[in-house]
Amino acid sequence: MDINNSRIVKYLEQGNGLAVNHCIEEGDVIIGIGDPFLIIVENGALDRVCSQCLTEAASGLKRCTACKVVQYCSLACQSTAWKTIHKEECRILKKLPQIPPTAVRGLMQLLLRKAVVASPTAPPWVRLESHTTELQRSKRWDDIILQAKAAVEWTASPREYIESAVNVLCRMATNAFRVTLADSTPIGLCFEPSVSFANHSCMPNTAIMFDGRHMTLRALDPIKEGEQISISYIDVTQTRDERRRELKDRYFFTCCCDKCERDDGPYRTFLKSTPVQDSRLELFHGQNNIVQTAQARCSESPAINVPTLLSDVNGLLSRSRDASTSPSAQLSLLKEALAISKPLNQYKLFAQTPYPLILNEIYLHYLTTSTYAKALSVLLFIYLNCDLYNYPQPHHPIRVTRLFSIAKLLKSINGMQNIDVVSANQTLLICVRNLGVKSHGVGSRFMCQVEEEIGDVEAVQRTRGDVGLRLVEWGKEESTEAGMEYARKIFEGLRILAEDALIDVL
Ligand SMILES: C[S@@+](CC[C@H](N)C(=O)[O-])C[C@H]1O[C@@H](n2cnc3c(N)ncnc32)[C@H](O)[C@@H]1O
Questions:
Q1: Which residues make beta-bridge pairs with 330?
Q2: Which atom, in ligand 1's list, is nearest to the CA of 198?
Q3: What pTM was estimated for this model as a whole?
Q4: Where in this chain does the record put each SET domain (predicted)?
Q5: Please, where are the H alpha helices in 301-442?
Q6: 8 A C-beta contact, residue 259 and residue 202
Q7: What is the 3-state secondary structure (H, E, C) of 456-467?
Q8: Nearest-atom index, ligand 1, CA of 16
Q9: Per residue of the chain (506 residues), what is the pLDDT tens digit?
C-alpha cells in the first residue's frame, strides 16, 4: 500500500518542495511507493539485474530471447514484464542496432504506456521544475532533441508528441533518481513525481531507499509538523566547491544550506547535528567520546588547502584504478596518496575528504586481493573515524550497510588475537538488525539477509557455550551483566583492530 505523509509547499528560494503533514520520528516512512511511475534497470546493470524485480544475481538470469536486451530472474518476472510493458518494448528493441540510452528506454516506456501524449492535461510531472531554458543553452540540448525524436519515431507515436517528449526528458534530467541496491550500488533510473518535489540540502533530514521496485523516503532525523523535507542529490562528503559545482551543473542552483554558506567541514557539521542515538552503539564508540573528538578536531584544524590536495590525490587515485596497474603498484599509489595527505593525518582529520576516499580504495584493494584481515581493519577504521562524523545518524543507511559489511567480513577471518570473531559477527549483526528497522525497513530484502546471517551465527554459537545467548539478551536490552561485558570486550577488540589500519597503511 502506498503511503504519503507529505504535502507540496511553495518556498521562496527553492520553488515547490515537500513538507511533512505531522510530526515524524527518525526512521519513519514519509512516502512509500510500491511501484513508482517509471523504474528501469540502467544499461550498465542490464547483465546482472532482473529487469522486473530489480534483484541482482551474479548468475542464473535468463535473457529475453527476442530482444536480447533485458534479463529476468524467473518466469514469473518475465511474464509480469511481458504483460505490463515488454511485449511492446521488445518489438522495438529487437530491431535496433544497439541499446538506446537508459533515459530513452524510459521515455519509450512512457510513450508506449500512453503516459506521454501530445497536450498533457494534468500529467503528474507537469508542476515539476524542468530547467528547459538552461538546458536549451547547454551542451545537452542537441542530445535531448535527438533522443526525444528517436523515442517518438521508434514507438510510432504521432510527431506532435515530440514537444511533450522533450518536456519529459528535461524533467527527468532534473528530477529522476538513481535506483540503488541496499548497499548504494547504482542499478537503475526512477522517475516518481511525488518524491521529486523534495529539495536538496547538504545536511538532509531524509533519505531515499529502494527495495527492488519499492521506493521509500524515510526520516533520518525527527521532523516537526510542517517542516520541509530535504534529501541529498549528491555525495555530501565532497568539498563545498565540488558540491556547488555538481549542483550547478546538474540542477542549476547554488546551494545555500548552512553547511555551504559557512563552508563547514565534517566535524563542525557533525557538531551542529542532533541525531537520536542508539544505546547499543554507545558501547562501541560512546557519543560523548565522538563529540569531544569532533570539538578537538575543530579547534586544532590548521588551514589546509583541501582543493589542491584533492586534485593531486584524484590524479593518483585514477592512476591506481587503471586496469593496467598491477595490485602492488596500485597499493603504492594509494599509500602515496595517503602520504601527500599528511597534513590531514597529522591533525587526525580522517573524516575530511579526500581521506575517506583513499581509505575506501585501500579497503577495496585488500578485498579484491583477498587480504581480508587488512580489509577488515581498514573498514573498521573508516566506520569509526569517517562515517561517524560524515553520517551522524546511527541508522543512516550508509552506516548500517557498512556495519553489515564489517560483520560479513569477520566471517572470512579464521582467527584473530584479542577478538572472538564469531561473537563479534553476532554482536554487529544484532546492531544491524536493530538499526536496519529505521534505515531499510522491516521485511526489506536487506533485513531478510541480516536475519539469515543471524540464523547462521546463532547456530554456530549454540555449539560454543553461553556467549551467544548472553549476546541475544544484550540485543533485546534484557541484558545481564555478562552479556554487557561480552559486548564491551568485543567492541574494545574491534576498536584495537581499527587502530591497526593506521599502523599498516601509513
Ligand atoms: C527535484 S527538483 C525539486 C522540486 C523543485 N523545487 C520544483 O519546484 O519542481 C530540483 C530542482 O529544485 C530546485 N532546488 C532543489 N533544491 C534546492 C535548493 N536547496 N536551493 C535552491 N533550489 C533548489 C532546483 O531548481 C533544482 O533543479
A1: none
A2: 3
A3: 0.95
A4: 1-234
A5: 306-321, 327-340, 342-346, 355-368, 372-382, 388-390, 397-410, 421-439
A6: yes
A7: HHHHHHCCCCCH
A8: 8
A9: 799 999 999 999 999 999 999 999 999 999 999 999 999 999 999 999 999 999 999 899 999 999 999 999 999 999 999 999 999 999 999 999 999 999 999 999 999 998 876 655 567 778 899 999 999 999 999 999 999 999 999 999 999 999 999 999 999 999 999 999 999 999 999 999 999 999 999 999 999 999 999 999 999 999 999 999 999 999 999 999 999 999 999 999 999 999 999 999 999 999 999 999 999 999 999 999 999 999 999 987 677 788 888 999 999 999 999 989 999 999 999 999 999 998 888 889 999 999 999 999 999 999 999 999 999 999 999 999 999 999 999 999 999 999 999 999 999 998 888 899 999 999 999 999 999 999 999 999 999 999 999 999 999 999 999 999 999 999 997 777 889 999 999 999 999 999 988 777 76
Q: Which atom of ligand 1 is nearest to the CA of 129?
A: 9
Sequence-ordered list of residues with C-beta below 8 angstroms from that of 293, at least 6 positions apart, any chain: none
Distance 463 CA to ligand 1 centre (A): 56
C-alpha 168 – ligand 1 centre gap (Å): 16
Kindly state the cell numbers that stand for 363.
Answer: 579497503
Report domain extents, the chain: 37-178, 272-505
Cα-based distances in Å from 166 to 46, 188, 250, 336, 366: 25, 21, 17, 47, 46
Exposed/middle/buried for 266, CB within 10 Å: 0-12, 13-18, 19+? buried
- Per the structure block, which three cell numbers stand in for 8? 507540496
Q: What is the CATH number of domain 272-505?
A: 1.25.40
User: Rounded to the nearest 10 degrees, what angle do helices 445-461 and 421-439 cross at?
Assistant: 160
How remote is the CA of residue 212 from the centroid of ligand 1, in Å? 26
Q: Ligand 1, residues 171, 175, 190, 199: which to mutate, most atoms within 8 A of Cβ?
A: 199
Q: Which amino acids bring their CB within 6 angstroms of ligand 1? A: 13-17, 128-129, 131, 174-175, 196-197, 199-201, 251-253, 255
User: Cα(15) to centroid of ligand 1, in Å?
Assistant: 6
Residues 327/299, Cβ–Cβ less than 8 Å: no
- The length of the chain is 506
Q: Which atom of ligand 1 is nearest to the CA of 197?
A: 4
What separation in Å is there between the alpha carbon of 23 and the centre of ligand 1? 23
